[in-house]
Design a protein that fits this description.
This protein has 247 residues and is of the alpha/beta class. The chain is built from 8 helices and 8 strands. The strands form 2 sheets. A 4-stranded parallel beta sheet has the order 2-1-3-4, sandwiched between helices. A 4-stranded parallel beta sheet has the order 6-5-7-8, with helices on both faces. Belongs to the HyuE racemase family.
Length: 247
Amino acid sequence: MSKIAVINPNMSAGFTDKIRTQAQRTVYPHNQVVALNPDFGPDSIEGYYDEAFASVGLLSVIRKLDPTGIDGYVVACFDDTGVDAARCLTQAPVMGLCEGAIRFAQALAGRYAIVTPMFVSVRPLEHLVRKYGADRDCVVRAAGVRTLDFEGENATRAYNALYGAAQKSLRDDGAEAIVLGCAGMTDVAEHLSADLGVPVIDGVQAAIKMVEGLAALQLTTSKHSTYGTPPAKSYHGMFEGFAPASI
């Protein structure tokens, strides 16, 4: 049995509930899912500024969970918030939604589109796509709605905007599959796939399956160089408790 921690690095309890439901549907029955938020951070992650603060909350959760025997972590934000730092903090595999979804999309389509809620997220995601070596075959588009619109009374309007942007990318960008560019969209993947008639990849499901596989093979994050444990030093002020000396 593997124990998978799925961490939503923002403070939206509604998103975490959706993510938990999807994660429990996705994992194999013999595996256990723990889905949670940090104790502090932004309501949502929409751009670089939010991401900087959310990363600290994410790391605070991993510091608490790691001694309890976690076999793998999913960072449930499509910006892959804090993933590289998290890999320095634990030996367990860590996967973000963007990286996980791209790896799945590459196996399903020659060209695909990430549709994210807000225009402010387009360039950051383009940078991630380039980092993962997928910029030749992937385009990033925005639906023009807020991330939090996928909850509550605005959910139908947000879905319609997502559908319109995805349809446009299939028509104009040559996309053959759609990647959902936000964890808060996790509950609409099947609906959108049926409406569009093409594969729709949900990063929550993709990242969980990748982490499950790595955990099953007992593969761990290399500490040889890139993701090595940071050298001991003092941190000051409100970050004192995050000092590498206390890891």
